[in-house]
Design brief:
With about 400 residues, the protein is α/β, with parallel strands linked by helices. The chain is built from 14 helices and 16 strands. It has helices at about 15-30, 75-85, 100-110, 135-150, 165-170, 200-205, 225-235, 250-260, 280-285, 300-305, 320-325, 340-350, 355-365, 370-390, and strands at about 1-5, 35-40, 45-50, 55-60, 60, 70, 90-95, 115-120, 155-160, 180, 215, 240-245, 270, 290, 310-315, 330-335. Helix 2 (about 75-85) packs across helix 3 (about 100-110).
């Protein structure tokens, strides 16, 4: 198949990009011709081939005032039309609803090409500054959902990474089939490795070689609620352990100040960027993985930790309870509640004799999320669309007629 994928981001650093890169490269490895259309960071069009994937960058404006990774494509339609003429896709697969993806959908509908999407969007992730004002957050979410639905309701099918994400989307005015498919995890790269030099990799990132290590990996942004984790650590007394926060983001300065103000510099370490080669080693050197975010539609980082056989301590919110069974492979705490999070941290630290058992349970639970299963599921969706959705033209089909329960 000739598959055109549109994504606002195609550089590792967030869940959508990680999923899109792995999807595109694995599809190419299985013999499909894949083109990814994504914003350019150079203000001009250019194309490259990366691991068998043709990546086309469309002129964009850098909105660094909002976030260092945001590039918007104000007038993408002419370039999108050219790329459709050159590539002649059999179907398109969008990863978001912004300007570029919207232009791709418009062109696909104009040509009667089957179109599907994967939803990684949750309004709350764009509104962390409203987190203390839930009523305002709900009001602000209304137009954000409308923008998303205006694009996705023009598709033939959408997927989401979890059952929880599917329920959230079906709770909106979505008129197309919604099917949950895991983001997947590469178990050939992330797996238990008894040969890992735990002391060496810890020292490389300035971590104590022997103390129990609780690891977080991801963006240091507001919606991840790392402030809750930091405050929770301040409530855990008389226990010798360390927390490592890996990654970068807009809230790093704020989080560092919180750590300083609470006097936690000896317990909480900001380890910054972790190289792709080091990530599996660091996960294998940790004793547990912590995910305090209450707005995860799945959490690839948590899947990677589970694949390395680690217990998980996570917020009891959104899709995380699909991954964590309390007492079996970790613990869940009330989201945004540092006191309850502290209680679960203590419980884990006092339960050392069960760490290995919980890690093994994580390893067993993650097997259904194997990346190759995910790729096969997406190939099945592509075939389903091409075999079951007739050629369409704008305005000829009621999207409400396509709505189904899956």
């Amino acid at each position: 198949m000739r598959i055109l994928i549109a994504s606002q981001t195609y550089t590792y650093g967030n869940g959508q990009a990680s999923f899109t890169i792995r999807l595109a490269e694995n599809l190419a490895a299985r013999g499909h011709q894949v083109m990814v259309v994504t914003p350019s960071e150079k203000m001009n069009s250019y194309g490259t081939t990366i691991n068998g994937v043709r990546v086309e960058r469309v002129p964009a404006i850098h909105f660094s005032i909002l976030h260092p990774s945001i590039y918007l494509t104000p007038f993408p339609a002419p370039r999108v039309k050219q790329l459709f003429d050159e590539f002649q896709p059999d179907l398109i697969h969008i990863q978001d609803h912004y300007f570029l993806a919207s232009a791709v959908v418009n062109e696909a509908r104009r040509r009667g090409i089957p179109a599907m999407g994967t939803n990684h969007f949750l309004p709350e992730n764009l509104l962390p500054f409203f987190r203390d004002f839930p009523a305002l957050q709900r009001i602000a979410a209304i137009p954000l959902w409308k923008m998303m639905l205006d694009v996705f309701n023009r598709l033939d099918l959408t997927t989401t990474p979890s059952k929880s994400a599917a329920r959230i989307l079906r709770g909106q005015k979505i008129y197309i089939p919604v099917r949950p498919i895991s983001n997947g995890v590469d178990t050939t790269r992330f797996h238990p490795d008894p040969e890992t030099d735990r002391i060496g990799i810890r020292r490389k990132y300035n971590l104590h070689p022997e103390k129990p290590l609780l690891l977080y990996m991801g963006r240091l942004d507001g919606e991840k609620r790392l402030d809750v984790l930091i405050e929770a650590v301040s409530h855990v007394h008389d226990m010798d352990f360390q927390v490592a926060l890996g990654g970068y983001g807009l809230y790093e300065t704020t989080l560092r100040k919180q750590v300083h103000d609470l006097g936690l510099e000896e317990r909480i370490n900001f380890i910054g960027y972790v190289t792709p080669d080091d990530l599996p080693l660091l996960l294998n050197s940790a004793d547990a993985f912590v995910m305090p975010s209450p707005e995860e539609l799945q959490s690839i980082a948590t899947l990677e930790a589970m694949a390395c056989g680690k217990p998980i301590i996570a917020a009891n919110a959104r899709a995380l309870p699909e991954l964590v069974v309390p007492g079996e492979n970790g613990y869940l705490f009330q989201s945004n509640n540092p006191v309850d999070a502290a209680h679960m941290l203590k419980q884990f630290l006092m339960d050392r004799e069960n760490w290995h058992r919980m890690g093994q349970a994580s390893l067993e639970r993650v097997q259904t999320h194997n990346l190759q299963n995910t790729i096969v599921r997406y190939e099945e969706q592509y075939k389903w669309i091409m075999e079951n959705i007739p050629v369409r033209h704008p305005g000829t089909v009621s999207r409400k007629a396509l709505r189904k329960s899956y």
